[in-house]
Amino acid sequence: MSDIPHLERVAIDLGDRSYPILIGGQLLDAPSTWADLPKASAAFIVTNDTVGPLYAQRLAAALAGRYSQVHTVVLPDGESHKDWQTLNLIFDALLGQGADRKTVLFALGGGVVGDMTGFAAACYMRGVPFVQVPTTLLAQVDSSVGGKTAINHPIGKNMIGAFYQPHRVVCDLDTLQTLPQREMSAGLAEVIKYGPIADMAFLDWIDDHLDALMARDPQALAHAVKRSCEIKAWVVSQDEREGGIRAILNFGHTFGHAIEAGLGFGEWLHGEAVGCGMVMASHLSQRLGLVDEAFVSRFTALIDRAGLPTVGPKLGAEVYLHHMRVDKKAEAGEIKFVLIDKPGSAIVRGAPDGLVSQVIDDCCAA
């Protein structure tokens, strides 16, 4: 790929479902980015009404040399549209244009677009190939990697979906330059997540380079995206369908999903809820005697510096517990939390409702 300067690659090792993650600048326009993808007569770019005007035309031009027809499907933007009605817009376009089982879908956008495109690809004709082209930091370091696809239900987040791996993930770092600052901070939550659960040296690096990341320094972003993808690739290669270790990637998500569902999907960004959820999970880890107060204080300060909320909305402990009980990690009604058992290592376990309620009350404000 000599036409792409400073290209980084991370491999997802899943046997015959293995694929590369490409990380670098100027990837959208480089012909080699799209080489060796499945052959088909048609490609469909699925995007939203925010990202589409910025990048859909460029991607369509790059794909025109490989596919005789390139169609674009534009979805409404936002977590509140991650539902059956919006998913059907993709199926309507595929059926309306006579897409066959070799048609390739390209998910151009953030985590919502990626999740819905992947789910549509898994379902249409029982499976067609798709490529992730994430344009947000959160999607580049987390949701585009590993094959989780889903839509939300009013009762629970990501409860309807499938494990379905893409053929490639293309992280063009240049797309992060147009990202609103709030979205940038939301993405940093998923970058920061990898430190406490797997690599404290990476957390130290984030602490030292947070200002550069907030300023979108290309070298800092390249390292953050690559290291995040390396950690996720290592976890996913061991546990593709979240039967064991992969659950640690949900650090902060049990509290975070409850915040999203309790407020109404889209009120807080996913990364904002996860950032606050990680603070709450670190407090729960401390109360269970797993980490000390110094760790919680340092971690909370980092979340705050990243522009993320550290105090949850005061929904009431019962509302939190209700939404947690329909979380995918819950087993026989017992809520499961990803907790830090020591800095750089995570476990999945339950906790007494009374203790969880105390943490919720202490970490939330009106």
Report on this model:
The chain has 366 residues and is of the alpha/beta class. The chain has two domains: 8-178, Rossmann fold, CATH 3.40.50.1970; 181-365, Up-down Bundle (Dehydroquinate synthase-like, alpha domain). Helices cover 44% and strands 19% of the residues. It has helices spanning 52-63, 84-96, 111-123, 137-143, 181-198, 200-214, 218-238, 253-263, 270-287, 293-305, 317-325, 353-363; strands at residues 8-12, 19-24, 42-48, 69-75, 104-109, 130-134, 148-153, 156-163, 169-172, 312-313, 337-342, 345-349, 364-365. The protein has a four-stranded parallel beta sheet with strand order 4-3-5-6, sandwiched between helices. The longest helix has 21 residues, at 218-238.
List keywords for this structure.
Rossmann fold; 366 residues; four-stranded parallel β-sheet; 2 domains; Dehydroquinate synthase-like, alpha domain; alpha/beta
* CA gyration radius, whole angstroms: 20 Å
CATH class of the largest domain: Mainly Alpha
Provide the helix percentage.
40-55%
So, the CATH homologous superfamily of the largest domain? Dehydroquinate synthase-like - alpha domain
Order of strands across the biggest sheet? 4-3-5-6
Strand content: 15-25%
Beginning-to-end CA distance, first to last residue:
53 Å
